[in-house]
Amino acid sequence: MHLPAEHRFDPARPQDTPDLPNHAQPWADALIPFSLSGAQAEEQYRLWRGSRRFTPHFFVRGTSHRSPTPIYLPFWSFSMGTQSTYKGERGDDSTSETTNTRTDSDGNTETYTESTRVTNYHAVDGTHEQIFEALHVSASGRFDTSLLEKSAGFDLSALTPCLPEYTRGCVLAASDVSFSQGWENGRTRIGLLLKIAITRKIGGDSVRDLKIQTDYAGPRFRRVLLPFYAFEHEHRGRRFIGLVNGQNGTVAGDVPRSRIKIFATIAAIVVVTGWMLYQLIR
After folding, report:
1. Source organism's superkingdom (predicted)?
2. Which of 59, 185, 206, 254 has the most other CB atoms within 10 Å of its CB?
């Protein structure tokens, strides 16, 4: 079964790209089916909760969480090559040592050495090429972006055309992020990834005043639905969300902290440290 072709677009005029080809077709071009059952997702989430530190009893035991909700979330998926030119300054650290003398209160002279770290900067420039395949950007504001980024690592070879049997019994989250905004978010992420790659390429101990100019080659996009299980806790008027990747079980979520556990841990550290110091000086 062949996937629909990716759509090409002009990065300089994203507003000219329609969000939907026409109103008779569904929003998504492709999806990844669920591989985990609800019971498997609940077990993954239970293990994850148990591994969190300084969490209150209600969260670890899960006595107040609701049944997992299978939900397909919409994403803009961008693919393209990038060609960047950059210039900046590379810093290389070196250490210089100076020998000095000083006189103490008894009139004794002693010699000592001081070490000083110096960073020498020199101009660098060059080019960098990098290919981005299926960079996913959320097309829904339903969940916090940081949670999605932590749990949205998918095997894209499982992408398949959208068929009713895959979405039956699942919540389909609406797309409320326009293509223009989705591309703006995607371009920001690409810029950050390029900065990391180019900084690593320049090397040295530090890089400053880095300026990058990027052109995009063959930009394309797809609208994809990705599977998650959503968990929800409510405790004393506060709402906590957990997401489990419906393909591989990766978990991310809000973690409440127990002030009592944190205070008890700090108190135990203070007591142990005090006892060790007492043993050393008595």
Report:
1. Bacteria
2. 59
Residue keyed to tokens 């969260």: 59
- Joined tokens for residue 223: 């609208």
* Cβ-proximal residues to 190 (8 Å cutoff; 6+ apart), any chain: 78, 82, 132, 135, 214
H-type alpha helices, 52-178? 57-61, 145-151, 164-167
Q: C-alpha 59: how far from its chain's center?
A: 24
Q: Give the residue carrying structure tokens 């043993």.
A: 279
Amino acid at 256: P
Residue 52 pLDDT more than 50?
yes
- In angstroms, the Cα distances linking 203 to 92, 171, 199, 229 are 9, 47, 6, 41
Residues near 48 by beta carbon (within 8 Å), at least 6 away in sequence: 242, 251, 253
Give me the residue spans of the domains in the chain: 7-83+130-256
The span from the CA of 190 to the CA of 196, in Å, is 10
Contact (Cβ atoms closer than 8 angstroms) between residue 212 and residue 82: no
Predicted confidence (pLDDT) per residue in 165-211, tens digit: 999 999 999 899 999 999 999 999 999 999 999 999 999 999 999 99
Tokens of 12: 């300089």
Nearest CA among 125, 132, 123 for reference residue 212: 125
C-alpha to C-alpha distance for 279 and 273, rounded to whole angstroms: 10
